Amino acid sequence: MDRTIKSNNRAEGPLGGLNQSITARPRRLRQTSALRGMLRETELNARDFIYPLFVRHGHKLRNAIGSMPGVFQLSVDEAVREAEAAARLGIPGVILFGIPAEKDPVGLENFAPDGVVQQAIQALKRELPDLVVVTDVCLCEYTDSGHCGLLNLPGSEYYQPHLPEGYVLNDPTLEVLSKVALSHAEAGADMVAPSGMMDGMVQPCAARWIRTGSNICRCCPTLSSMLRPFTAPSVKPRRAPRSSEIANRTRWTRLMPRRRCAKLPWTLMKGPTC
Ligand SMILES: [Zn+2]
Hints:
Blueprint: H1 3-8, H2 33-39, E1 50-56, E2 62-64, E3 72-75, H3 76-88, E4 93-99, H4 116-127, E5 132-137, E6 150-151, E7 168-169, H5 170-187, E8 191-194, H6 203-211, H7 221-227, E9 230-231, E10 254-255, H8 259-270
Parallel strand pairs: 1-3, 1-4, 4-5, 5-8, 9-10
Antiparallel strand pairs: 2-3, 6-7
Helix pairs in contact: 3-4, 5-6
The structure holds zinc ion (ZN).
């Protein structure tokens, strides 16, 4: 006699009736390939990708990046060719990272009208008008320190004696970021992607656009999560494409082991308006 039925009136099963507590059985929807295909909610296609391009000054340059096989630093003309190839595959957009001719404490080329990214934006929009051109907006590719922000250094106009020397200055960095965002927008970028993890970094970009009378107000904080949100070992190989090597970023990037830490900065970065 079945002891399970006798003792507690539950259906017989390998777990002695315990499986009666399962009220939903979604495994039934995964039984066949046709069912799984029919019920799929997320499809990943070429049109979902944004192709990263690392642009540098020069002509017909394709400099291989050792830490990322198959990835190159490209001169603007080569970047256009690469974007054309991506577009033929159905990839609708590119994101640009710039390697400047010279680096300095502020990263002046970052917001120069003839900066390498600004040149690339214009060439891409001229040759491939339908291509979505996104730009990385950060300082680390352009500063001689390799940090994503201005450093607290004696003699600098931003020097704050109450803060440690070498401290990454959040608020003065926002001023530079907003200049970069405006410069990219004026060059014709469809979207900018602040990625430096500075607190409040999106709102000043939008504010500067509005202040300057630009009708462009497009910023994409979501994209920045794809760029470099965490302090993690996996970040290191991605520094090389941008020729940006630094040591310690742990004081202002997100901490991988803290989930709450990953969520909070979005609120802080966005600010009151966007
Ligand atoms: Zn950066």
